[in-house]
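Sample entry as discussed:
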Amino acid sequence: DSTGDGMGHPLTGPSAVHVRDDGTVWVIAKWSQNVFEISPTGTITEILDGSGDLLHRFRLPVDDPLIVSEDGVVYAAGNNSHNIFRVDPFPSHAPEAGAISGLELIGMEITVEYDGTTTDLARTYRIPQSNSGSQAVVRPVLPASPTLEAIGIAAPASVLDPGVTLRITGAPDATVRLLRMESGLLTEVTPEGGFDLDPFETNQALLIEEVSAVLSPAGSVDIPMTLTRSDARGGFNLFTAVVLDDLNPELTSFPADPVVLEALPGQPGVLELSKTMVHFGNTFLGTVSPTRTVTLTNAGGAGAPSIEITAWQVGPQFRVQGSPPVSLAAGASADLSLRFVPQALGLQTETLEIFHTGNNSPLVVTVQGRGKELRLYPDRKKDR
């Protein structure tokens, strides 16, 4: 609809639609001056807008200006801006794992020679709003590059907890962008499965995320991020950051040295109890106490597996309502309802054991209640 990709890039005045055999759809919008790609799974991405490639703007005519090749390369004719743009496919649509897009080249160092003696060193960074390209801008003056670190983690590293915090340091009050790219090592179609592979080496971008922030007057900002592992062969999260130019925010500094963190597959989580003791107080023999509850929570973070409660057992004087199995997703909770059915006088103490697939099974809850004799007294008034 008119919200476009839902990321602030609207779709207004659609003028043409192209569909490929694999289900990929491209939509041209003449009024909002952009082109959207819709993947077979429904992901919507703006692949071209009026900013063009920053140096050359893109302006759509009323007529259909778009051609898509068999390998998914989009050619957009900007008749009103007198130019033609080529947009390479997003890596998820690449025909093979060995096909490299500009995203995989983010952070690459480029040496530029002017006259054989004068050189500049540049680094590539994502083309704004692009899902397939990177660029290196060489100018006499650019903002100083920031520094980037993962707080409490010596990168590169493999971590279980997907929640991490990245710290960007640079010029006070500067506007910065933090880029996260999940990538994977897909060796199925590479010759002999690849060779000379290093730890944390990847060959295909899977997901990309970019956030903006402003450095504090002290010159730093902490940004919480969540690592992803969208594919069993992925999970390698590369972070880098740039400082935006004050006069032209589309121009940036060279990117910071990258930080690479691998999100390990989710491990069996911890099942937490809201209480480890339940007391029912006094309950008459032959009656059932009011219900007491114990809350169970899967304490795993994002990406952690579900925990299945497989069984529970308790002595005959205490009852658990319902029956296993019960499955709890990461962060989810469930209540166990308990009742006391005394069969003897005095304090009764038993143990409730809860068995589950987490790494702290079984859980133990102490349950207590006091059985009291129920006495019936005759109505003396009726005897008179």
The helical segments are 380-383. The mean pLDDT is 79. Residues 380-383 form the longest helix (4 residues). The longest strand covers residues 204-214.
